[in-house]
Amino acid sequence: MELGARYDYFKTEADNLDEEHSDNAFSPSAALIWKASPDLNFTLRYDEAFRAPTSEEMYTSGAHFCMGPGFCNTFLPNSDLKPEESQNWELMTEYVMSDVLSSSDALTFNANIFHNDVDNFIEQRVDDPIFSPIPNPGNTYYRNIDKAELQGFEVAMNYRFDTFNAVLSYGQTRGQDKKTGEAISSIPADKWVLDMSNSWLQNSVKAGVTLSRIESQKHRPNDVNTEYEHYTLVDLYTRWTPRDFKNFTVDLTVNNLTDQYYRVAFQQLYMPGKDIRLGVRYDF
């Protein structure tokens, strides 16, 4: 059994609005762990959580995206946002199979289901633009949902052979306003992920590819009519950590290798194409 607790305090200030907000919360947690066998274990968790609204959620203003000169969706600040407070239940299981195809491999299965009750859930809303009879680009804003319910699950399979590793996972989340039964707009769509990687030179070099399939978003609020189609992303990554300099790391990532343009759910913009990033880190 595990017991824990967390204390949070936050304070935000906006000089241009002459406002400041602060709050605090004490959040307990507990977990029951049952090791049914050397290869199988179950964990039941209960956690309470507190999330303060960010400065971006409370105070952002200006243009969000434009659909032509002078026709821009704009952010509306909402300094009255309340912190999210949630009660979360999660059941997790893990099963490990060793020596599946050889003496140096292993296959791990993970599954978890969760149910969260959230007070003052912070949701982002993006208005659909209106082009006629009176054009209106709409607004983007954050608001609290008094009582929200989130539930879902994730399953994953991890196969490891020597220095090769492959993980296949699928996850889905459903969220709704408990008072109206309406879907929550900021809940992500169902997602498949396949990640394959290999290491060389005594694990000092690691490279891999990630394939992500995001399904079409069918669970939309009643006032959102826009279709959000499925899309697939291909990401490449590599990491080099010299054996003689363990604190030094170089990362190179190529996100969205195929220049896939896709629409972010419940937003009126398309994400850009390929994104290449190089990172160098030294930990003292």
From TrEMBL:
It is found in: Cell outer membrane. Keywords: Cell outer membrane, Membrane, Receptor, TonB box, Transmembrane, Transmembrane beta strand, Transport. It holds the Pfam family TonB_dep_Rec_b-barrel. InterPro entries: Beta-barrel_TonB, Beta-barrel_TonB_sf, TonB-dep_rcpt-like. It is a multi-pass membrane protein. It comes from the Bacteria. One of its GO terms (molecular function) is siderophore uptake transmembrane transporter activity. GO terms for biological process: siderophore transmembrane transport. Residues 3-257 form the TonB-dependent receptor-like beta-barrel domain. Its main location: membrane. GO terms for cellular component: cell outer membrane. The keyword Transcription does not apply. Belongs to the TonB-dependent receptor family. This is TonB dependent receptor. It comes from Methylophaga sulfidovorans.
